[in-house]
Prior knowledge:
Layout: E1 15-22, H1 28-38, E2 42-43, E3 55-58, E4 61-64, E5 76-81, H2 85-95, E6 105-109, E7 112-116, E8 122-126, E9 138-147, H3 151-162, E10 166-171, E11 174-180, E12 186-192, E13 203-208, H4 212-220, E14 224-229, E15 232-239, E16 246-256
Parallel strand pairs: 1-4, 5-8, 9-12, 13-16
Antiparallel strand pairs: 1-13, 2-3, 3-4, 5-9, 6-7, 7-8, 10-11, 11-12, 14-15, 15-16
Helix pairs in contact: 1-2
Amino acid sequence: MDVTYDRAAEDLGNVVALEHVNVTVPDQRLATIFYVTALGLTRDPFLMTGANNMWINVGRCQFHLPTAARAQIQRGRVGLVIPDRRALLRRLERAAKHLDGTCFQFHEEAGVLEAVCPWGNRIRCHEPDERFGPITLGIPYVEFDVPAGSADGIVRFYREIIATPAHIAEDEPGRCARVGVGPGQELIFRETDCPLAPYDGHHIQVYVADFSGPYRRLRERGLISEESDQHQYRFKNIVEPGSNEVLFTIEHEVRSMRHPLFMRPLINRDAAQSNLNYAPGRDAFIWSAPRAD
């Protein structure tokens, strides 16, 4: 055969999916205006449908938004792929009057539209692009600001303890650790000299193939923060594997692939639909595009 393939490019590592980002919100109405009306995302119609929590579908990912007196602010930014930048801009402009007096704002820079939620969480919105693979709606990355000099240890932590690919990268914003957490998904830990806000308890959730291996290595180091149930545990601190020095804190909700919610189909609406331009059969939005082979 004359054709050769890069077989290593297909390797995933132990983390098979980043499913959700969880931040508390004080007001479900304002959260609905921002995440559903302005961003054009979809409230999960089946789970968490009461007034005290809301799950927001983003392709095959989610935001979890439980109610609390104090909003949690992710120390960084969440990347979204959202189709039709012009339609997104129009939705954000229309939502502005309803979010007056909050932290809400939005601006464009270098082809990226950054929207700030009513409490200060930063959402970086990208149009579909080949660098995100076939994703047309989803969360391709979550980026955290971390102390200068911590990226190398963070890479070692994910390689040695979580057993997933990680590497150091240099780009225009600076130096960072990039960690693979599923097809087309990354955690990005970007070094900064700026002071970091205290950790306030927000978390991310991932699914792993080898559930017991990381658990054993985390427990040996005293890092398990919650024994949730048979299918789930949590840890908060990312450490230097050799010294156990804490490098950064972000709670990870770790689930096995036997978890009942693994690969649960999520409904996504077509945000272009309205009662004024309704087209039968176009209520649902497909979160991935066909391959152009």
